[in-house]
From TrEMBL:
Family as reported in the entry's similarity comment: Belongs to the auxin efflux carrier (TC 2.A.69) family.
Location within or outside the cell: Cell membrane
Protein name per its UniProtKB record: AEC family transporter
Positions of transmembrane segments: 6-23, 35-53, 65-87, 99-120, 126-148, 169-187, 193-213, 225-244, 250-271, 283-306
Record keyword Ion transport present: no
Species this chain originates from: Anaerosacchariphilus hominis
A GO BP entry: transmembrane transport
Recorded topology in the membrane: Multi-pass membrane protein
Amino acid sequence: MLIDLMELLVKIILIMGAGYFFAKKKIITPQVKQSLSTVLVHIVLYFSILSSSQQALNTEYLKGILMVFLASSVYYAVSIPVMLGLGKAMGLSRGKKEIFTTMAVFANVGFIGFSMISEIVGEEGVLYAVAYNAAYNIFFFSWGLSLLAKGTGKTQKVSPKDILTNKMLLVSVLAIVFYMLPVRFPAFLSTTLSSVGGMMMPISMLVIGAEIAEMKVGDILRDKYSFAVSFLRLIAIPILMIPVVKLLGFSANTAMTFVVLSALPAGSLNVIMAQEYRCEPEFAARAVAQSMLLMLVTLPVVIMLVKVI
């Protein structure tokens, strides 16, 4: 396990390094990076999710899907008010308190999470990640967006229709439905899905490397509130989740998936929405960049802890 983990970490660093190098050489320009991100989020991720539905039906997997969805829903329902209270205790101003909350609560599940889980756990883990991501979408596009609007002195009501028509949520539900059906796609179709879905990790790491190349490391490392986000996202939350999944009786792969998804850096979607709502987008960008860099150190430690505890 340790050797496999180190190989995965080296692979991640090398691909991120390639993204950094080609961005510095102006081969991966901001326009190319944006195009890669669009392809990843709107094509490759969907293929990866649908590919996970083609495994043999297993009642234990169905149980794991339900447990992950319920556990992640409870996590979001509890952590949002807790982080809001923490932000208030830290004396954060309006706007920064709200974006601090979303950054600390909502990890990079879609962009990094699926690729990591695919590499660490395999397609079974992707199914559990689909369930986790469904809860993410429900809470982020309702409570999360309402917080960002509140941070700028506005109010925003999100209707159930807005949540239920979210494309990522629809694809996630579709994948679970396909998984529960007694038939599977023809071999040529399932192979196509897995081939395209397999591009998740390399493309995401190239984009992250290119993003880091555009940032000033000094600014990233001097932001004390970004360090608070990184500590919560990468250390405190996953450490708390380890005894929880053990207490709830999660299987090894279900526990690994849930804890790894809880140990990821702050989500890039926070930055996009912070820019749209004009709610401290610079702070959001610094926190995402810092937590991405620190993840290279913290994630292997968290994975080993899940294995030994």
